[in-house]
Specification:
By secondary structure, the chain is α/β, with parallel strands linked by helices. It is built from 13 helices and 24 strands. The strands form seven sheets. A seven-stranded mixed β-sheet has the order 7-6-5-2-1-8-20. The chain binds flavin-adenine dinucleotide.
């Protein structure tokens, strides 16, 4: 029986596995999925987790509960050996290694945060990519308030209460809005901190927010965020970061101890070491039918792939695209097994949405129309709730949203999640305290 190995249990990998399970006949092929987490993460709600609006467990869905016929390995992929059709992995819990031989390999390893090698940034910035990142950021915000309330030095307090969010795409815009809401919701518990002491700066190197979307969306997002007291800085990228803040390309300095980085993504590092052709953004170069260029038994999709759109461009790295690429890839893989014809992946975006906090959002609708304000926020919530996998998760998130309307956010600083800035660092609470 042919073996199909899928690497990565995110939007893309699960979409492929689910379609293969549905369409493969019994005994036609074995499906194995390898991922380093035993859950899939619903990233569109991650900014709300970082602000404490949604409980951390409610945006993840166990992989084993989503699949029936697929063998799941909770393991880190260490090496992809295309020449010998093998994948080497290491179990996450036991650290013992193993290897899988495949007939067809599907790469769905996603992306990682990129700081473009800017000095001091990787060591100090808080990324927002994983569940741990979101919880570390929420905890950091509470810690900042506790610290600011405990000290007398006004300069240090100002620096503590200044948050810099770097990246004016939908993640950065949502994160700035959400974290500002968190501060506003709980500041009354801190007698030595006033609302005016809190400064949020959103930094975007390009000329507008929400680049690539209709200009009206960026203009509206800026107006709403500035109206709430957030400083928006465009046209000036980050040059470097140090212990007390960051320096922009213009030489302007921002004094802060908390930099949230949502300015860049790069395809998974595991892809880089495999001998595979790379395309734009260093993702695996694939044909329009999602086969890797020159490798008829290797397929790629989602954030780790560079997928031509047939009009000279490439499809964007979004969950919306990843979950549509999955069924096309699975259908083409099955067609390959059965000797059928392959179809190109073709999809027109449904639009993009960004929640701005305070029951406001901005949404691009099909056809390029733009919806703003409360109706866009309502659409954002309804759409993403409907896409969240698992009915129990839907109910839990709906309850979180309802509670958030009735009560202030939780300010318990949980040291089990203590983690310093830096893309990979996990440090003790003592080590991260100055
Ligand atoms: C904060 C945030 C908000 C976002 N909001 C939106 C939104 O509103 N709408 C939208 O369309 N998109 C959004 N995105 C983008 C979206 O999350 C990605 O485009 C999408 O996750 C890509 O799916 P994927 O399956 O390719 O990668 P992922 O979902 O990242 O999945 C990759 C999987 O591979 C696993 N993995 C990686 N390396 C290894 C390894 N070496 N060994 C084992 N397992 C490995 C990972 O643990 C993960 O489970 C957002 C992203 C972020 C970070």
């Amino acid at each position: 029986m042919p073996v199909i190995v899928i690497l990565g249990g995110g939007f893309a990998g699960l979409a492929v596995a689910a379609r293969l399970e549905r369409r493969l006949r019994p005994g036609e092929a074995e499906i194995v999925l390898v991922s380093r987490e035993n859950f899939s993460l619903f990233t569109p709600m991650l900014p709300e987790v970082s602000s404490g609006e949604i409980e951390v467990r409610h945006v993840v869905t166990p992989i084993r509960a989503q699949l029936r016929r697929t063998r799941f390995l909770l393991a880190d992929v260490e090496r992809i050996d295309v020449a010998n059709r093998r994948v080497e992995y290491r179990f996450v819990l036991t650290h013992s290694g193993g290897a899988l031989a495949y007939d067809h390999l599907v790469l769905a390893l996603g992306s990682s945060t990129s700081t473009f090698g800017l000095p001091g940034v990787a060591e100090r910035a808080f990324p927002l990519k994983s569940l741990e990142d979101a919880e570390a950021l929420r905890n950091r915000c509470v810690w900042l308030l506790e610290m600011a309330d405990s000290i007398d030095d006004p300069v240090r307090r100002r620096r503590l209460l200044t948050i810099a969010v770097v990246g004016g795409g939908f993640t950065g815009v949502e994160t700035a809005g959400e974290i500002f809401e968190l501060f506003r919701s709980v500041v009354r518990f801190y007698p030595n901190v006033r609302c005016d002491d809190i400064a949020m700066v959103l930094i975007e190197a390009g000329p507008t927010l929400l680049a690539g979307l209709p200009a009206k969306m960026g203009i509206y997002a800026r107006r709403v965020l500035e109206g709430r007291g957030i400083t928006v800085s465009t046209g000036d990228g980050v040059a470097r970061a140090d212990a007390d803040g960051l320096v922009l390309q213009s030489g302007r300095r921002i004094e802060t101890e908390t930099i949230v980085w949502s300015a860049g993504v790069a395809p998974s590092a595991t892809i880089a070491q495999a001998a595979l052709p790379l395309g734009k953004r260093r993702g695996v170069a694939v044909e329009r039918d999602l086969r890797v260029v020159g490798e008829p038994r290797v397929w790629a999709l989602g954030d780790c792939a560079t997928i031509p759109d047939g009009a000279g461009g490439f499809y964007p790295m979004t969950a919306q695209h990843a979950i549509r690429e999955g069924p096309r890839l699975a259908d083409n893989l099955i067609a390959t097994l059965r000797g059928g014809a392959l179809q190109p992946f073709a999809y027109r975006s449904l639009g993009m949405m960004a929640a701005l906090g305070g029951r406001t959002a901005v949404a691009e609708l099909p056809g390029g129309r733009v919806l703003t304000g409360f109706p866009a926020w309502f659409l954002w919530r309804s759409y993403y709730l409907s896409r969240l996998p698992g009915n129990d998760r839907k109910v839990r998130v709906a309850i979180d949203w309802t509670l958030d309307m009735l009560f202030p956010r939780d300010i318990a600083e949980l040291r089990i999640y203590a983690r310093g800035a830096g893309l990979e660092s996990v440090v003790s609470p003592e080590a991260r305290r100055p």
